Amino acid sequence: MNALNDSFLSGAGNGVLRLITAGSVDDGKSTLIGRLLYDSKGVFADQLDAISRAKHKRVAGDGIDFSLLTDGLEAEREQGITIDVAYRYFSTPTRKFIIADAPGHEQYTRNMVTGASTADVAVILIDATRAADGKLLAQTKRHSTIARLLGIRHIVVAVNKMDLVDWDRAVFERIRDAYADLAGKLGFAHFDALPLSALNGDNVVTLSPKTPWYEGQPLLALLESLDLASDGRALPLRFPVQWVARHDGDRKDDFRGYAGRVASGVVRPGDAVTVQPSGVTAVVREVRVFDRAQEEAVAGDSVTLVLDRDVDVSRGDVIVHTAAPAQVAREFEAELCWLDAQALNPARKYLLKSGTRLTSAKIRAVLSHRDIHELQEVENTEGTLRMNDIGRVTFTTREALAVDRYADVPATGAFILIDEATHQTAAAGMLR
């Protein structure tokens, strides 16, 4: 008999929470996720048997090395670190969860950016033994900065390995206060902090008797209670066209539809819309899913829009409400998380992918970069960004783009840069 909880498929009443664990190397991120999976019965019995016999496990005897539930690569198990983002799924009677286990090593920060891009919650783990004096590690600051840039709504600070400091309340409070100072500098309105031991399960699913001084919830209960009310419907309509749907020409109705995924907002028949960047206007005649019409489509729905007249629409165009258009321009300012081992070179050619649009881009200037230690923007005198750097740049594109500020509409405010020569993803960007 396996222990997998099949309620994920049956549905839970409080939505799907996407979370990422972040922090420095050996802070216990993978172990925490493994413990959550184990205690929520989200693990197959044969998986437990396999990891109990794994040659690279780091616990004595027949104990379970929970980190092996997410660290599946041989290199990860050999080195005892997470390299790639691992996704795991489980549910409770209250909520469904999709967890991204991000690597803590600075070399793999770019993988953390990928995992964090779709997260609702960032669980920032801090090793109590390494931050007992209240001094946070650089990767804690870097991952928190990225979480802020990506607009992650909820931050949970999990002070791990409290058992190794004898559950000293003073240690926890020093770390919590240090993170409060960091949160203030980054502009986080609120965060939750709790003491725990991922290895032993203290304060993970149930409250531990070892922390009578802690008055909050255990981690799982806290995650179940977070408000996930989405404002996606309240945002302006953004519908990047993925492809133009036509029949084979054997029908007299000459069907023409525009297929894609609603990035934000709501679209209904009768809505006045504009195709950007061209500026052509029309009215939505039908919102179709497969062979049937429906009354509306909301953010996240994949649909085909049929307009009241034939207009020039191509892949990469964005359909918006005429009353709430996007910005159309060729010159932009953006924040870049540089991901490529090859440093930014303004002389190189890059491709920019925004939504379904792919065009060439030219970096005009590197204005500044972020000092992770001081949490300030400083002038960039080198004119470049190196792997894992975060900096502000100006650039131009060959074609006009319909975009928004990332803070206003994340779906159309984000983009990636691709090195035209190597086809490597060079950077993740957010328009400012």
Automatic annotation (TrEMBL):
Keywords: ATP-binding, GTP-binding, Nucleotide-binding, Nucleotidyltransferase, Transferase. Its EC number is 2.7.7.4. GO terms for molecular function: ATP binding; GTP binding; GTPase activity; sulfate adenylyltransferase (ATP) activity. Residues 14-231 form the Tr-type G domain. One of its GO terms (biological process) is sulfur compound metabolic process. This is sulfate adenylyltransferase. It comes from Achromobacter marplatensis.
